[in-house]
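Researcher: Sequence recovery benchmark, item below. Answer with residues only.
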């Protein structure tokens, strides 16, 4: 068997076209969707993700501005910037790129973003809503994964989903999105015993480890399973996912590539969340 490749680049391009139309419609009514991003310090991966987010925003007609702060800025100054962005009526979406440098209380920073501008869906109000089955502003990577599966008509209801990740950015919200769609969900992490055996029970296996020293090979994959690779690490200058693509694609039914799988979907979903937040703030949502 050779797996069908889930083309995130293509699906994201289609979504971006729809978002461009929506942004144009908003502009006709005098509203320009506006995204503000905040970066603290100079993590090179964060810089490159943010570049991609601003480029994509411009492509669909979302205005954006970037606030790049030094790593030694105080938590109070960062919070003051967020307070300003919260009250600025021009700004519809706020994203604080994670991880923040050591010493910052990330949870407390995220809580300072007003929930209706929280286009990352990380504020406890939005995360709590999601866990109750109400999808308002949903984290971009999990949202992108669901959209990618839906595009290829991969069933979720009644399926067994195994997620290797338990972060608030990926594993936890994705578990809730799968639950909301009637999947049976297992969330694995660094202390999970018998990971290969559990992974092998999955109809849909999602891996977001991002570890250079660990790869998901065919012994983790049930024949015909859908394998979603959220991992991203740089090995010898080359971008690589969690999954041994060549080996696993001989066994899986569907597989996402890295790059060109989940990454572009994450960016497109950030833009969708920004348009959605704009609609709500301008009385259209
Ligand atoms: N770091 C890695 N992915 C993300 C994301 O989706 N949002 C934010 N804010 N930081 C990230």
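Model:
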């Amino acid at each position: 068997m050779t797996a069908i490749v889930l083309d995130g680049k293509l699906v994201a391009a289609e979504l971006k076209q729809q978002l461009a139309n929506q942004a144009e419609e908003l502009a006709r009514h005098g509203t320009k969707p506006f995204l503000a991003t905040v970066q603290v310090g100079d993590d090179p991966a964060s810089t490159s993700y943010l570049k991609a987010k601003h480029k994509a925003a411009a492509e669909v007609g979302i205005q954006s501005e970037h606030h790049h702060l030094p790593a030694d800025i105080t938590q109070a100054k960062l919070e003051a910037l967020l307070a300003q962005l919260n009250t600025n009526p021009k700004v519809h979406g706020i994203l604080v790129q994670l991880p923040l440098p050591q010493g910052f209380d990330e949870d407390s920073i995220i809580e300072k973003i007003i929930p209706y501008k929280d286009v990352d869906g990380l504020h406890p109000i939005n995360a709590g809503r999601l866990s109750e089955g109400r999808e308002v502003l949903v984290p971009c990577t999990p949202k992108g994964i669901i959209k990618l599966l839906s595009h290829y008509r991969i069933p979720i209801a009644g399926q067994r989903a195994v997620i290797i990740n338990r972060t608030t950015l990926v594993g936890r919200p994705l578990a809730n999105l799968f639950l909301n769609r009637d999947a049976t969900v297992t969330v694995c992490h660094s202390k999970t015993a018998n990971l290969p055996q559990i992974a092998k029970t999955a109809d849909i296996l999602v891996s977001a480890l991002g570890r250079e020293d660990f790869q998901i090979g065919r012994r983790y994959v049930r024949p015909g399973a859908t394998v979603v690779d959220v991992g991203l690490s740089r090995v010898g200058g080359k971008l690589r996912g969690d999954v041994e693509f060549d080996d696993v694609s001989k066994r899986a039914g569907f597989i996402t590539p890295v790059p060109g799988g989940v990454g572009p979907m994450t960016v497109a979903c950030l833009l969708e969340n920004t348009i959605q937040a704009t609609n709500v703030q301008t009385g259209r949502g």
